[in-house]
């Protein structure tokens, strides 16, 4: 919501200047005092708006830098309970005076009461602020499990609190831009044990009563933890020169990680959202004002899935070896020095702007895939090199060469293009790689050329057999990438977003699921196997209609039992990436997992955000090698 900061700040500045012009300086000796509780009152807004008042209180948070331009004060000795008269804390907007106070100071403030987008505050000049020498009782942090309703939260607006209960990181996307994260309080009562904010259509049918109830609960459980600033870290060069809060190469804030409060925070309301504000601006990952600790992500590979063959799905996030600088017409996203990092528009390249950027992208993908421990991997979002006048498999071959070089042996191969390739194949395609010591391909690959996929990527099928096994160990893998939920046509058609949670193009994805079922059915006899795996990015959450089509056709969601999800959008976790198996293969599953290395991590770690901030967060590791988490299943394939 901080995109409204400039307008809001101008409004507050105008209000402050009008109020300050009518004020006369006050001293501790000659001023009648008003209690903060009386100013706050018990309603949603103060009944004293426009009045000049003087309060004495203790400073609980101060922000001379970072854009907040004010400080919080609270009634001395308060905090052990909530006063029935109103909150004991209030924000003081004072750009000229905030630098004169510090947390713990006993102050007298004369200012004008106002409401700033729902936050009760005082506007005060430096002359209206006096740091007192007389001692004051310390403010206590109110230990409380934060209620869900606005009215209940109003009772301790701007007070110092000690949040109780269980907290989980639910969203970290805005850490890269606004320095804020979403935390989820407790666990879901609708989905027992769920600690994150689950995408409603990942659990319940779109538009259903259950889905609506879950989304309502998600909104109640969510609360922002801010950084004590209003900076847009993707804005001015000055902002980019301030280290991103909370994050470093070695310190992650991962979705799903437990968050433990190590210090008090202030209950704040800004930009239409309730927030927990630290007592000072958080700068970097080791700042003393950081009020919470976060469980750290493991650098190990995925959980073992057992069996003698493993199959995974991995979205490689527009891996294009044809970089923007090789083409004409490309525009770019640039770093803080104006150097191109990734292609924005204007040409067919979709990934890195130049070779340096490509090497950073490739390093992450290679690190992830070599730790993934899969024998067969279906890939999504890889370059179709034929569109650039090269062999169709050129980018795929480059990736496999890099994988083998990093592994120190020739363990990976790719599935080559079939003889027949659709003439209108997209610039982005699906692909497959495999470990040649584990499996061998049977016959050539097949691409589904069907009108249902005119707006998506064509499925690619390949039969494999375990090395040393017979036809009983044969299985068919199909790589998929269905139409995305974005770009709503808004034309009233079956593909328009109906607002039920399924997003746009649901009808297209249903047709793609039906065409996929028919495609797989026809290949079973041709490849002499009933063991079929349908894997990839289906752009459909687990309870949506395209998934139901596959299930009604007899396919089993092999990763349905895992307790993590593969994707994060809008602070909601859900799985767009799936591996479905025919009944003949489902009974041979030995384990399944979703490896949370991408969707759960801050976008700040992506190659595409290299040098966006003075804090350099890029590392050639697996974290944020894509925006989707890879899915893995283990199979026991025997000769009998």
From TrEMBL:
<keyword id="KW-0732">Signal</keyword>
<dbReference type="GO" id="GO:0004519">
    <property type="term" value="F:endonuclease activity"/>
</dbReference>
<feature type="domain" description="Endonuclease/exonuclease/phosphatase">
    <location>
        <begin position="353"/>
        <end position="628"/>
    </location>
</feature>
<keyword id="KW-0378">Hydrolase</keyword>
<dbReference type="Pfam" id="PF03372">
    <property type="entry name" value="Exo_endo_phos"/>
</dbReference>
<dbReference type="InterPro" id="IPR036691">
    <property type="entry name" value="Endo/exonu/phosph_ase_sf"/>
</dbReference>
<dbReference type="InterPro" id="IPR005135">
    <property type="entry name" value="Endo/exonuclease/phosphatase"/>
</dbReference>
<keyword id="KW-0540">Nuclease</keyword>
<feature type="signal peptide">
    <location>
        <begin position="1"/>
        <end position="28"/>
    </location>
</feature>
<keyword id="KW-0255">Endonuclease</keyword>
<protein>
    <submittedName>
        <fullName>ExeM/NucH family extracellular endonuclease</fullName>
    </submittedName>
</protein>
<dbReference type="InterPro" id="IPR047971">
    <property type="entry name" value="ExeM-like"/>
</dbReference>
């Amino acid at each position: 919501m901080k995109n409204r900061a400039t307008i809001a700040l101008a409004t507050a500045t105008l209000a402050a200047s009008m109020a300050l012009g009518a004020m006369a300086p006050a001293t501790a000796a000659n001023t009648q005092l008003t209690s903060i509780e009386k100013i706050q009152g018990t309603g949603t807004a103060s009944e004293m708006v426009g009045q000049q008042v003087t309060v004495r209180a203790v400073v609980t948070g101060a922000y001379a830098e970072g854009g907040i331009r004010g400080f919080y004060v609270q009634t001395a000795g308060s905090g052990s309970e909530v006063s029935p008269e109103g909150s004991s804390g209030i924000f003081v907007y004072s750009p000229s005076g905030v630098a004169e106070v510090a947390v713990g100071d006993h102050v007298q403030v004369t200012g004008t009461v106002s409401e700033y987008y729902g936050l009760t505050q005082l506007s005060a000049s430096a002359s209206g602020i006096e740091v007192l020498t007389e001692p004051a009782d310390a403010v206590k942090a109110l230990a409380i499990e934060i209620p869900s309703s606005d009215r209940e939260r109003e009772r301790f607006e701007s007070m110092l609190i000690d949040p109780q209960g269980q907290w989980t990181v639910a969203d970290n996307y805005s850490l890269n831009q606004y320095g804020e994260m979403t935390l989820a309080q407790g666990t879901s009562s609708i989905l027992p044990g769920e600690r994150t904010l689950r995408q409603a259509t990942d659990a319940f049918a779109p538009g259903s009563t259950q889905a609506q109830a879950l989304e309502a609960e998600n909104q109640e459980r969510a609360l922002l933890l801010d950084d004590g600033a209003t900076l847009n870290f993707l804005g001015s060069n000055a902002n980019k020169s301030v280290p991103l809060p909370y994050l470093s190469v070695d310190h992650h804030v991962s979705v799903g990680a437990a968050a433990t409060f190590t210090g008090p925070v202030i209950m704040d309301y800004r930009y239409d959202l309730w927030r927990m504000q630290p007592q000072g601006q958080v700068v970097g990952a080791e700042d003393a004002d950081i009020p919470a600790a976060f469980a750290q992500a493991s650098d190990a590979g995925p959980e073992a899935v057992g069996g003698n063959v493993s199959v995974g799905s991995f979205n490689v996030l527009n891996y294009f070896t044809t970089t923007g600088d090789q083409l004409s017409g490309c525009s770019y996203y640039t770093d803080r020095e104006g150097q191109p990092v990734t292609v924005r528009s204007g040409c067919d390249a979709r990934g890195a702007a130049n070779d340096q950027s490509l090497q950073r992208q490739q390093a992450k993908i290679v690190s992830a895939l070599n730790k993934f421990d899969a024998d067969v991997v279906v890939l999504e979002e890889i370059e179709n090199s034929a569109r650039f006048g090269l062999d169709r498999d050129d980018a795929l071959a480059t990736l496999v060469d890099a994988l083998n070089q990093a592994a120190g042996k020739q363990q990976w191969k790719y599935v080559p293009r079939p003889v027949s390739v659709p003439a209108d194949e997209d610039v982005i395609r699906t692909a497959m790689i495999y470990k040649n010591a584990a499996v061998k391909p049977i016959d050539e690959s097949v691409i589904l050329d069907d009108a249902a996929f005119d707006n998506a990527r064509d499925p690619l099928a390949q039969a494999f057999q375990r090395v040393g096994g017979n036809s009983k160990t044969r299985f068919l893998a199909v790589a998929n990438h269905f139409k995305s939920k974005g770009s709503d046509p808004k034309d009233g058609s079956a593909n328009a977003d109906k607002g039920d949670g399924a997003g746009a193009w649901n009808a297209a994805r249903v047709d793609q699921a039906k065409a996929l079922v028919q495609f797989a059915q026809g290949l079973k006899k041709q490849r002499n196997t009933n063991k079929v795996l349908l894997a990839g990015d289906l752009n459909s959450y687990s309870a949506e209609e395209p998934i139901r089509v596959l299930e009604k056709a007899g396919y089993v969601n092999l990763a349905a039992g895992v307790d993590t999800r593969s994707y994060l959008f809008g602070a909601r976790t859900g799985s767009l990436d799936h591996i479905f198996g025919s009944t003949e293969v489902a009974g041979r599953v030995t384990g399944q997992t979703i490896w949370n290395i991408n969707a759960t991590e801050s976008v700040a770690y992506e190659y595409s955000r290299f040098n966006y901030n003075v804090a350099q967060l890029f590392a050639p590791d697996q974290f944020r090698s894509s925006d989707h988490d890879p899915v893995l299943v283990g199979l026991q394939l025997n000769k009998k």
